[in-house]
Amino acid sequence: VDLSDVVTDAALRFEPVVFESGRRLLYTIDEGLQVSGDRDALERLTGILLDNAVKYALPETPIRFVLEKGKRGVVLRCSNACTPLAEGETEKLFDRFYRSDQARSADGSFGVGLSIARSIAEGHHGFIRAQCPQPGEIVFTAQLR
After folding, report:
1. Nearest to 75 by CA among 136, 127, 22, 123
2. ∠ CA 10-14-18 to the nearest 5 degrees?
3. Can you say how many angstroms the Cα of residue 92 is from the centroid of all Cα atoms in its chain?
């Protein structure tokens, strides 16, 4: 699967959604990156990451989306400004139905997207993780082979 095409299509599809939310989508996508896998699942993974960023990024802040060659496969990274998370909370984000803030339950989602994203990444011989390199910023990184 040409993952560069999948990620480019997702970024273009989400540009108007991001714009309507009062944010900007900044993306860098290396061309010609391929992985063995299921195109539909990879489209879903990229959509989950972008949808999550649109829902939870702080107002009027950019969403950054990067696809690049990594040491072991390809790396897809989505980052945005967010409400600071408690210590150790990033790992819980991938648990089914987990919400870091109960007020988020009114957003119309069910809290399973990141759990699905983890399954997709693992199904493509990779992983996904969330990190907060500094308070108020979250970075989701998926490595696929």
Report:
1. 127
2. 150
3. 15
β-partners of residue 81 are 137
Q: Which residues pair with 34 in a beta bridge?
A: 2
113-133 confidence digits (pLDDT tens): 999 999 999 999 999 999 999
Residue type, 87: E
- DSSP secondary structure string for all residues of 112-139: -HHHHHHHHHHHTT-EEEEE-SSTTEEE
What is the reported pTM?
A: 0.90
Contact 131, 88 (CB under 8 A): no
- How is residue 63 written in tokens? 């969403």
* Cα separation, 139 vs 130, whole angstroms: 6
What is the rounded CA–CA span in Å between residue 6 and residue 74? 13
Of 125, 2, 8, 123, residue with least CA distance to 65: 8
What value, to the nearest 5°, has the Cα angle with vertex 99 and ends 9 and 102? 125
